[in-house]
Design brief:
Blueprint lengths: L1 H11 L6 H9 L4 H29 L4 H28 L18 H33 L7 H10 L1 H31 L4 H5 L1 H17 L4
Helix pairs in contact: 1-7, 2-5, 2-7, 2-9, 3-7, 4-5, 4-9, 6-7
Length: 223
């Protein structure tokens, strides 16, 4: 149980499991309740995916564990890097901000102009929705990425007996989920205390920078 709890905590404290979620919650001004729900869902998904992948590896052979783990880091890190780079580019070229109306469109002249404006407006909303969906799914996916370092502990517990297996599973799940929820919620709450205007103006840049930083660490095998 202690080994399972230790592995769960040691993996959950890595920044890819909570930092992007915390930055997302701060930049989008999520209330604490929503941050808790989001991080709880990520923690539960992380545990379930870890167990499923662990079961698959036990069936096909543990010799693939290191290979799968390395490729998982490359995939998750690569997705974070690409998404962060895309957000950064959109922000630098001026497409990271919402579309505003300055009153110049108060009069519409002709059906074609109205149609073009409506099409441009709907296209802009669709683009922002796509960016918003990516900004949500990528941090959530990183937080929910599996932990295969727990496999030796589960196998050792299985050799001891059913009770040891179940208690180890419970210890791993509880410690992992609680760690992700606490770190995400506490970091987001602390970040909300920082109310400097540049933080809100540079929300997209902060998100991009966080994804690039964490993505680089994950892809490089540092975390």
């Amino acid at each position: 149980m202690l080994a399972a709890a230790g592995v769960g905590f040691g993996h959950a404290v890595l920044p890819d499991h909570w930092m992007p979620l915390a930055v997302l919650s701060r930049t989008r001004r999520y209330p604490t309740r929503r941050t808790v729900r989001l991080s709880l869902a990520a923690g539960v998904t992380h545990v379930l995916v870890s167990l499923v992948m662990g079961a698959v590896l036990v069936l096909v052979g543990l010799q693939f564990r290191d290979t799968v783990s390395r490729h998982t880091d490359l995939v998750i890190g690569g997705i974070l890097l690409v998404t962060g780079a895309a957000f950064l580019v959109m922000e630098l070229v001026g497409r990271g901000h919402g579309h505003g109306h300055d009153g110049e469109h108060g009069h519409v002249h002709g059906h074609d102009h109205a149609h073009d404006h409506e099409h441009e407006h709907s296209h802009d909303h669709g683009e922002r929705d796509a960016r918003g969906l990516a900004a949500f799914l990528v941090p959530f996916g990183a937080a929910a990425s599996p932990d295969l370092t727990i496999l030796p502990v589960f196998l050792a517990a299985g050799a001891v007996g059913v009770v040891a297996s179940i208690t180890s599973l419970i210890a791993f799940a509880l410690v992992t989920i609680v760690t992700i929820v606490v770190l995400t919620t506490a970091t987001a709450a602390g970040a909300r205390l920082l109310t400097a205007p540049w933080i809100d103006r540079g929300a997209n840049l902060l998100t991009a920078g966080t994804l690039l930083l964490v993505g680089g660490l994950v892809a490089g095998g540092v975390v």
